[in-house]
Amino acid sequence: MLFAVAFACRGEPPAVTPVPEANAVGAASLPPSAAPSERTSAGANVPPTSRSVAVLAGGCFWGMEDLLRKLPGVSSTIVGYTGGSLKNPVYEDVHAGSTNHAESVRVEFDPSVLSYERLLAYFFSIHDPTTKNRQGNDIGTQYRSAIFVLDAEQRRTAEAVIAKVAASGDWKQPLATEIVEATEFYPAEEYHQDYLQKHPGGYTCHYPRQVSFY
């Protein structure tokens, strides 16, 4: 398992190698029309007994995807753009920062193995949710921290997790993570998919922190 060498900034929890655990809570089912590619995460050879989806944004999607896909219970990840105004955006549109799309990851997972709550807790440990429209050296609305909820249950869970993370004191600054209704998700270009698998040692500003809420 390859992680970028990173040092926590002042006010950040310390870095740690993840040891994911699994608890079971349901989440929104993936609509057939929005089914991701058949790409599956490492070790996910057994079809899940049920499928749920989460759409998360937390900076450059290369590093986010690389960590999320390794969680037990995750069966598929795909990076893309969501939350913006332009139909069928391409990377150059989003990178310009004028469409309001966020670089994001659609995560398909088995809720009998990995709960939505647990997935969100991990999400808050691998990126800095306190920097508005920024992650590491990446600056712009496309790098904002956001949870795109598919239904009322996901919203309630997201609100509860944010309250738990804020109360933990692990992050010393206020959380800037948005909870917004999911809109159309546009898969990114193929060269962005599984980028750090194709380019080991490539750029990432994501790493797991030692936190009390996960």
Describe this structure in words.
With 214 residues, the protein is an alpha+beta fold. It has one domain: Peptide methionine sulphoxide reductase MsrA (Peptide Methionine Sulfoxide Reductase, Chain A). The protein contains five helices and eight strands, in the order βαβαβαβββαββα. It has helices at 61-68, 91-95, 116-126, 152-168, 195-198; strands at 52-58, 74-82, 102-109, 134-135, 138-139, 145-149, 178-181, 186-187. Helix 4 (152-168) links the parallel strand 6 and strand 7 (178-181). Helix 3 (116-126) crosses helix 4 (152-168). The chain starts with 51 loop residues before the first strand and ends in a 16-residue tail after the last helix. Mean pLDDT is 83; it is low at 1-10 and 17-46.
What can be said about this structure in brief?
This protein is of the alpha+beta class. It is built from five helices and eight strands, in the order βαβαβαβββαββα. The protein has a single domain (32-198), classed as Peptide Methionine Sulfoxide Reductase, Chain A (2-Layer Sandwich), CATH 3.30.1060.10.
CATH topology call? Peptide Methionine Sulfoxide Reductase, Chain A
Helix content: 10-25%
Quick one: CATH class? Alpha Beta
Integer tally of domains = 1
Alpha-carbon distance between the two ends: 20 Å
Gross geometry: globular
The CATH architecture designation is: 2-Layer Sandwich
